[in-house]
Amino acid sequence: MKRHHTKEIAIGQIRIGGRNPVAVQSMTNTDTRDTKSTIAQIKKLAAAGCEIVRVAVPDETAAKAIGKIKAKISIPLVADIHFNYNLALTALANGVDKIRLNPGNIGSAKNTGAVVAACKERNVPIRIGVNIGSLEKKIETRYGRTAQAMVESALYHIGILEKLNFHNIVISLKASDVPRTIEAYAMLAKAVDYPLHIGITEAGTPKSGIIKSAVGLGTLLYQGIGDTIRVSLTADPVEEVRVAWEILKALNLRQHGVNLISCPTCGRTEIDLIGLARRVEKYLAGSHKPITVAVMGCVVNGPGEAKEADIGLAGGRNRATIFKRGRAIKTVPAELAFDELIKEINRL
Amino acid sequence: MKRHHTKEIAIGQIRIGGRNPVAVQSMTNTDTRDTKSTIAQIKKLAAAGCEIVRVAVPDETAAKAIGKIKAKISIPLVADIHFNYNLALTALANGVDKIRLNPGNIGSAKNTGAVVAACKERNVPIRIGVNIGSLEKKIETRYGRTAQAMVESALYHIGILEKLNFHNIVISLKASDVPRTIEAYAMLAKAVDYPLHIGITEAGTPKSGIIKSAVGLGTLLYQGIGDTIRVSLTADPVEEVRVAWEILKALNLRQHGVNLISCPTCGRTEIDLIGLARRVEKYLAGSHKPITVAVMGCVVNGPGEAKEADIGLAGGRNRATIFKRGRAIKTVPAELAFDELIKEINRL
Q1: Which of A151, B36, B156, B278 has its CA 20 to 30 A from that of A197?
Q2: Residues 1-20 in A contacting B (C-alpha not used; CB under 8 Å)
Q3: Buried b (16+ CB within 10 A) or exposed e, A64-102
Q4: Are the C-beta atoms of residues A300 and B82 closer than 8 Å to each other?
């Protein structure tokens, strides 16, 4: 995995692009004007590991609420704005850390100039967010709903900002179709070196949406593409953050809590492995220890995988052997396996 | 996505490799000797879309049970065998469709010769299953627990079979570490043209295991690697099959039931989208219609995505517009949205 080179930019106190870790982003689904609910949700998101949060800004009241929200949260805040440049100016005046806005969609060159000037003054980046569901008519007519069309749309908006000598840019290209999304980002990564915010949009409910996002974002990250990620789910956004971290952990890009390995069980399994793995997972859910724990059912692959973990357990007939960093340290009756494993984890 | 070329082989009535669709595989976690439970689980797996099923064969009773199981199921059956070549011979005599066995691990050249002769006679393929947890000592000492070591181990076992002029081979290279697994398959795909069975082993409980598998298998499939897939989860194997299908659907490699697109909701959403999407998902769960349904919350990207689906819905303030293959066909009050959407889906 070789990372695609992008320039570094700052979003509040967070830096993305360059050699910075891939950042986890989410979006509130509260009414932004309801600052109490919005602040509460952002705090829950931050506690789950969200590093950048976006809020919808549909009107002036929402734009003004940003100051109040910013005062109560500790992670950078992004304003999601469509069509109305005045909302961007209000959000900026209220201390927003990043604006998501497509400069070609806010009316006139004068409007764009005003937003860009305010962003420059405050060192606030603009994310250009291309979505296949809302391409410019002209581009869609020429290229269809293709990866190429998304890239052309991004280049159009980038061009507007570059003409104003503004380069504090992040770009996203979203579609619900996974291969088209991957193709679009790969094309754009060859054309520009701005940081890329990656996501599969309208991925759906958790049952299928988690999988679509993991396939799409995983494939892009493995290609070294992606500086911030967002998992979009029709669900509580806290779940988006959990899934984003699992994707980053699966590729060893970031560490976040425990990495639990457990086998699928089969006709060889002689202990209650599903129950044991669930208990271990539940116990470790809140842990921030960056360790790998293996819970394995049998003697075929069990000891090998268990040995590679910081702490591992391999089941046998009514008993389990516990491994610590490659060495078997004890064999205990099955009914003591959970307690003994936890004891060893807590000793680390 | 250009598919890596592999030779075609037959597993019972199913063909894999070449231009055949990527097949979905799973493994029972019942005691194979308990034929009643094993048959019942295989029927549930087949109903969920499992196309090839593997059972553990730890002893002669299990090997003999294969005849009884085969008589009651309609999908090809694979016997998972370790160390004991007699179990392979019994499984073959009982009509098994594929053997998962590493020829270097069954004692002697004579033993391997006997298994290969029986496989040739019945046109039964052998899957060489390399697992990083059980590498040959010599290979692990030389290469460590690396992707290269897994490939060397596979080539060692392949060599044994090729010397016996046996080429009816499938290969898997499994590790719980996702990047190492991807790297190993990519290396092996350059070296051989046998069909590849791909999986992330010991992926863990559904919460993280689904994501590890989707990232790993998705990345490989996007590179054109993989002729059969197995998702390993510490859970009911029916869930493995569901996840495998979602991965294949995410990359447009196979169609299986409805593709549901829905947006993540945000501060712009003015209808109960999470509830609506869940109801639609639940209603369509058993459906085999190969259609795309979009359930979208707002006017920014909603109509665009909804238009691309076979049937789509875009919410607004207390109302929803229904789209059919690109055309808005009606706008209804929010409380009728579910019924009207389902009515249109059933009309397709």
Answers
A1: B278
A2: 1
A3: bbbeebbeebebbbbbbbbebbbbbbbbbebebbbbbbb
A4: yes
In chain A the domains, ranked by start, together with CATH numbers, are 9-250 (3.20.20.20), 259-347 (3.30.413.10)
How far apart, in Å, are the Cα atoms of A218 and each of A202, A221, B42?
17, 5, 31
Distance CA A223, CA B127 (A): 30
- Write the residue in B145, B211, B232 that is nearest to A308 by C-beta: B145
Q: How far is CA B18 from the centre of its chain?
A: 17
B196 touches chain A (CB under 8 A): no
Which position has the token pair 């109040």? Answer: A68
Q: Round to whole Å and give the CA distance between B261 and B129.
A: 37
Nearest to A281 among B28, B205, B222 (CB): B205
Report B:87-126 residues touching A (Cβ under 8 A).
Answer: none
Map tokens 């506690």 to a residue: A47
Residue with tokens 């999470």: B274
Give ipTM to 2 decimals.
Answer: 0.89
> Which of 31-60 (A) contact B at CB < 8 A?
31-32, 38, 55-58
pLDDT by residue (tens digit) across A103-116?
998 989 999 999 99
- The Cα B296–Cα B261 span in angstroms is 8
Side by side, the strands of the sheet bearing B292-296 are B259-262, B292-296, B311-315, B319-324, B327-333
The 10s digit of each residue's pLDDT in B16-44 is 999 999 999 999 999 999 999 999 999 99
Alpha-carbon distance B39 to B323, whole Å? 44
Query: Residue A119 CB: number of other CB atoms within 10 A?
Result: 24
For residue B71, the tally of other CB atoms under 10 A from its CB is 11
Residue B203, SS3?
strand
Partners of residue A207 in chain B, C-beta under 8 Å: 246, 281
Instruction: Give the C-alpha separation, A37 to A52, whole Å.
Output: 17
| Residue B318 binned pLDDT confidence (cut-offs 50, 70, 90) | confident
Chain A contact for B296, CB < 8 A? Answer: yes
- Its pTM stands at 0.90
Residue ranges in chain A assigned as alpha helix (H)? 35-48, 60-72, 85-93, 109-122, 137-143, 147-163, 178-191, 206-222, 237-250, 273-284, 302-308, 337-347
**Token pair in block for residue B160:** 């044994």
CA distance B340 to B315: 13
A274–B237 CB contact, under 8 Å: no
Nearest-CA distance from B124 to chain A in Å?
22
Per-residue pLDDT reduced to its tens digit, B106-162: 989 999 999 999 999 999 999 999 999 889 999 999 999 999 999 999 999 999 999
Reduce the DSSP state of residue B89 to 3 states and report it: helix
Q: For residues A160 and A110, give the distance between their C-alpha atoms in angstroms, rounded to a whole number.
A: 12
> Is A234 at the interface with chain B, CB within 8 A?
yes
d(C-alpha B305, C-alpha B284), whole Å: 19
